[in-house]
Amino acid sequence: MLASVLCLGALQLGVVAAPQVRCYGALMEIIHQGRLEGRTTLSAALAHPHGYALGALAGLNGEFIILDGKAYLSRPDHRGGVVRSISAGADSAALLVDAHVSAWRDIRLSRAVTLAALQDTVQARGKAFGLPAGGAYPFLIEGAASHVKWHVADGSKLPPGPSTHEAHAKAAVHGETKQVTATFLGFYSDHDAGTFLHHDANVHVHALLPGGTAAHVDDAVFEAGAVLRLPKSW
């Protein structure tokens, strides 16, 4: 079932429409209703060229990131680590948020930006490029980051039915990388809390870490010199 957020900005003078952002499933349903079943397959994001997506696999059996049509998956190995793989699109997702972007604008960060401050940086830079101030749209960060805290969901450790953010966090596989060069994909919006955003943030970010680990980013510092990429055409 498609929980649709067709997040197209209104076409106004000096403002360009954002890429169409689609969301299958919803965080509020996953956490508060226990809806862990597959809502679509990863092929939904791979059906058109230049697909970018992130989300959680059905059953919360891991996380994924899709970068320019290539899908990377990480599943818990139930020994405290993760198993990495590449998907052709048949895998199901309990949550998938995607967009298709054929070209990007690059901005080199002049100073370090924390994950907590990232939403303001993305919003300000996007507005300067004519993207709708409220979103929704994807963004990329490529380059050096430090103090990266991440997790990979593990639904096998959750009891059936409604749960809490705390229980989901406790069940997940966690990791931390002090210094890394990686690719981060995020989605920004100021009106999609409970759908693809948690209620305390306007961005949802996943990382593709060295070695192919795809993970949800809980905290990070994006270092000066890293490149923020915002949609240019789609």
Please compute the radius of gyration using only Cα atoms: 16 Å
Order of helices and strands: EHEHEEEEEEEHEHEEEE
- CATH architectural name: 2-Layer Sandwich
Query: Separation of termini?
Result: 25 Å
Q: Give the CATH class.
A: Alpha Beta
Described by strand count, sense and barrel closure, the largest sheet is:
7 strands, antiparallel
Number of strands: 14
Q: Shape, please?
A: globular
Report the average pLDDT across residues.
Answer: 92
Domains counted in the coordinates: how many?
1
CATH topology category name = 60s Ribosomal Protein L30, Chain: A
Secondary structure layout plus pairing:
Elements: E1 22-24, H1 27-32, E2 40-41, H2 43-46, E3 51-57, E4 63-67, E5 70-76, E6 82-87, E7 92-100, E8 103-108, E9 113-114, H3 115-128, E10 135-152, H4 165-171, E11 173-189, E12 203-208, E13 214-222, E14 227-233
Antiparallel strand pairs: 1-7, 2-7, 3-4, 3-7, 4-5, 5-6, 8-14, 9-13, 10-11, 10-13, 10-14, 11-12, 12-13
Task: Describe this protein's structure.
By secondary structure, this protein is mainly beta. It has one domain (1-234): 2-Layer Sandwich (60s Ribosomal Protein L30, Chain: A). The protein has four helices and 14 strands. It has helices at 27-32, 43-46, 115-128, 165-171, and strands at 22-24, 40-41, 51-57, 63-67, 70-76, 82-87, 92-100, 103-108, 113-114, 135-152, 173-189, 203-208, 214-222, 227-233. Strands 1, 2, 3, 4, 5, 6 and 7 form a seven-stranded antiparallel beta sheet that branches. Strands 8, 9, 10, 11, 12, 13 and 14 form a seven-stranded antiparallel beta sheet that branches. The longest helix is centred in the middle third of the chain and has 14 residues, at 115-128. The protein is globular and about 45 Å long.
